[in-house]
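Aim 2, interim progress: modelling of the zinc ion-bound target.
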Amino acid sequence: MIKEYPITNGNGSHKPIVAPAKVRQTGMQKGHVTKYQAFPPVDLPDRQWPSRTITGAPTWCSVDLRDGNQALAIPMSIAEKLEMFDLLVKLGFKEIEVGFPAASQIEFDFIRRLVDEDLIPDDVTIQVLVQARESLIRRTFEALQGLKRAIVHIYNSTSPLQRRVVFGMDKPQIVDIAVRGVELIKQLAAEMPATAITLQYSPESFSSTELEFALEICEAVIDVWQPTPQKPIILNLPATVEVATPNVHADQIEWFCRHLRDRESAIISLHTHNDRGAGVAATELGLLAGGERVEGTLFGNGERTGNVDLVTLALNLYTQGVDPRLDFSDIDHVRAIYERCTRMTVHERHPYVGELVFTAFSGSHQDAIRKGMDLQDLADEALWQVPYLPIDPKDVGRTYEAIIRINSQSGKGGVAYVLENEFGIQMPKAMHIEFGKIINEIADTQGKELSATQIRQAFDQAYLHCNSPFQLESFHREAASQPNQGTIVTCVAEIAVDGVVQELRAAGNGPIDAFMQAMKEELVPDFTLLSYAEHSLGQGSEAEAIAYIQIQTPSGKTFFGASTDTNIELASIKAVVCALNRAMQAH
Ligand code: KIV
Ligand code: ZN
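Predicted structure of the complex, ligand included:
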């Protein structure tokens, strides 16, 4: 890459010459990495946060309509912003940053719409962002005319890098920007007594700012604003760029809280971005360290890698037994509105909401989940203890049906779970293995996941439609009590063998026994009954029943048969025929 630099020639005229720029190495450095360096730790040997736990929800502030919106390729229209605002209110947000009214007309108009149409509920406070610049602050106050309450969020950047590279200013000059901005806000707020203004100040790039300087500038702002415990200032300490491990963020927050004068007159707010992918962790540790308020967005939308994800944070709290005071009972609805308004998509593996997060592909996981669910169902309101599922999918409006999907990696337990939960078919345990193999073969051949419908079709095909070589045409039985022999049942059955109907008769100690005798005498000389099970497939007298029969052939192989009928006796006879057909087909 080359750059042009204007230089002065001997005759005084400016003439561009081409100077070679330093050639930057491409690709990652190997071995001794000198291009980057570790973020220095905070000197806080008696840090308290590691032994604390989070016991309550912070104050949440959504910045979806500002940090989130500014990071969209196509920013939201007013209609979309209204839809998003309405969603945020319904979810329970009490503080919502609605935009940067001095930066764009649409943001200004949106705020006016909220005010003029009285769309802000009494228990919700809107927040507006503004840089510490006079013209922008004045324009911001124009947008606030007629509001009962508002948080005015003013910021300027404080880190050494920003001071040097972006502003070319020293520390006193940077402090002066903040102080003058807050003085003006104080003056304009006094001129607008009908609107209760809360001040929020952000030393932007706090995460990279020397802690002593961050403290100095915040205290300079406090000196101007004069907050009290009854009317506190919000000090928002942003990890504008996430540059260190979450423990460093926690140390920064604890250090700041411990050194801040007038601590009780300030609300410490966290505003983490996710550059290292640890925004949620950093925020959680920041809460342990003294943070009381959290700014973030739904599903972590926002600049670059996004702001901290408030859905994950809130549901993380919930799964620790803390009421997050945000309601994500219908998470799919929240996602649908989010995706429509932002034109972003939520990843399939996104915590709590992704398409696949309540799905287990692995057989052992499926089995464990099924067992956990069965036990959980027995104990209502019990502590949630289902392996592999940190949250009950029902709590966020997801269904159990989606929990287990089947592919060739899936185990028998998962297949049985799907049949039971989707179709009420409760195969006997030993049958799980037999049917599991059938499903694995199909999944292997198709090379893809099977839906619940395909699993049901495979079950019907393997058992309920297994009609060859034998097909039961009719079955009658008579019972007669014999002295000293209990009840003897005689049966007459018509069986089509490869299409040719034969009549069979035999006696036994029950209808199944009588029918098996008849089959043994005429058609299949040697097999034994190993097990029998049945259950109804619905409720009421017209409900179908399903019967399962397991037989063993002389070679020791076992086969299951299953059949359904509104008459349970007929279902079991057909199940015997099915088991015999499967045994014959296997030869
Ligand atoms: O990330 C950031 O620092 C911000 C500030 C405006 C608070 O968004
Ligand atoms: Zn931000």
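Confidence is low (pLDDT under 50) at residues 1-17. Residues 58-224+293-342 form a domain with the TIM Barrel fold (CATH 3.20.20.70).
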